[in-house]
From TrEMBL:
Belongs to the LysR transcriptional regulatory family. Residues 8-65 form the HTH lysR-type domain. Keywords: DNA-binding, Transcription, Transcription regulation. It comes from the Bacteria. It comes from Pseudomonas japonica. InterPro entries: LysR-type_TF, LysR_HTH_N, LysR_subst-bd, WH-like_DNA-bd_sf, WH_DNA-bd_sf. This is DNA-binding transcriptional regulator, LysR family. PANTHER family: HTH-TYPE TRANSCRIPTIONAL REGULATOR LEUO-RELATED (PTHR30118), TRANSCRIPTIONAL REGULATORY PROTEIN (PTHR30118:SF15).
Length: 319
């Protein structure tokens, strides 16, 4: 068994993973508390063992070869799984740990929640690392099951939704409002459904969906809106709306972050919108690990703080 591993120093896989993530021998060496020359020597040994260059210099970065790209996800998952299993043997000491936690997020969940979470972690665990990756699906099922990420922060539109194999921490519920430029020439008297449909719209499709939840809600009224722009990211929408006459229908609490100056305003949606629920998904396979349990508790605390801090604000009437 494991004949391909017998002549391979498995510590070299830590070096591979660090270089792949940082694209730098120096940065990888720093993470692993090695000298750059020792890290470079370890890479040479791994190249010899696997008969592939693995990384080639392009400009100032070390770019992975085809074989390295094929290996990367599996190596990361294997190291994550092994680290989680070993951490279950004893207590997690956050003040001394230098463990790396991987979170899958959308741009808005990163913007709205990560600062609060990292503020909490900074004082409790000053040496841990948080690696953030972009979420390509609402629950990141495959990444969580494989151990490539520890938590996925995302939205769902079903309060009772439970993804098979996954568990979730609930944060808060939100509805949708319509974002517009403060200088929009046709919205001085408010926003009716007819007025809404007469305008052009910016639509956010973060998971490459063919249609948005808002378009599905409109189809229940047998109407459709005129889509001018489709975006994979929510963060670009306010800038586009502020410079055009387009409208964007976004979660209320997202809009509250954006409406700070005089360039934007928002309106209640002139139709019944779905409710979206922010959750942190995780796989029960890793839930027993002491470090996973500790971070799960910190996420739940942050969610409680965020939800409590926004409940009163959600009752403020729109501008």
């Amino acid at each position: 068994m494991h004949s391909s591993l017998r002549n391979l120093d498995l510590n070299l896989l830590l070096v591979f993973d660090a270089i792949y993530r940082h694209r730098s021998v120096v940065a990888a060496a720093d993470e692993l508390a090695m000298s750059p020359s020792a890290c470079s020597h370890a890479l040479t040994r791994l190249r010899q063992a696997l008969a592939d260059e693995l990384f080639v210099r392009y400009g100032s970065a070390m770019q992975p070869t085809v074989q390295a790209e094929r290996m990367a996800d599996d190596v990361s998952a294997a190291l994550s799984l092994l680290g989680t299993r070993l951490s279950q043997r004893g207590h997690f000491e956050p003040a001394r740990s230098d463990e790396t936690f991987i979170l899958a997020v959308t741009d808005f969940t990163a913007f709205s929640l990560l600062p609060l979470l990292l503020r909490r972690l900074e004082g409790l665990a000053p040496h841990i690392r948080v690696r953030v990756v972009y979420s390509t699906q609402q629950d990141a099922l495959e990444e969580l099951a494989a151990g490539r990420v520890h938590f996925s922060l995302g939205f769902t539109h079903d309060a009772q939704a439970r993804v098979e194999e996954l568990e979730a921490i609930d944060c808060y519920a939100d509805d949708y409002v319509v974002l517009a430029s403060a200088s929009h020439p046709r919205l001085n008297d408010g926003l009716s459904l007819a007025g809404y449909l007469a305008e052009r719209h910016v639509v956010v499709l973060p998971w490459k969906d063919s249609t948005s939840i808002i378009d599905q809600a409109l189809s229940a009224h047998a109407v459709r809106r005129d889509v001018a722009v489709e975006l994979p990211s929510m963060m670009a929408a306010p800038a586009i709306v502020s410079h055009t006459d387009y409208l964007a229908t976004l979660p209320r609490r997202a809009v509250r972050h954006f409406v700070r100056g005089e360039s934007l305003r928002y309106f209640e949606a002139p139709f019944v919108t779905p409710v979206c629920y922010l959750k942190a998904f995780f796989h029960p396979r890793y839930a027993a690990g002491a470090s996973h349990r500790w971070l799960r508790e910190r996420i739940a605390e942050t969610f409680a703080e965020t939800g409590a801090g926004l409940q009163d604000e959600s009752r403020i009437p729109p501008i």
